[in-house]
Amino acid sequence: xxxxxxxxxxxxxxxxxxxxxxxxxxxxxxxxxxxxxxxxxxxxxxxxxxxxxxxxxxxxxxxxxxxxxxxxxxxxxxxxxxxxxxxxxxxxxxxxxxxxxxxxxxx
Length: 107
Description:
The protein is of the alpha+beta class.
């Protein structure tokens, strides 16, 4: 099992989760974070830290979010590691809870 960042992180990109990660498994893209499944130790410390509830265990993903397992794996191979908290986008609150955000993902 590993943890997966899902749709609600897109355009929100809060980084509270990266600060608590003991193995630096988060990677940062332009408007999304991902978890490297090879580095994740399944500690679950990141889950309660995410203010938009975008992180799930891979076996507990909400329906329709299965594609994020592959997306996290693929993007973690090309995006840089992030281990320090940064400011979220200025309009992050506006994007919390918006559905069908995959089309806004910037690679």
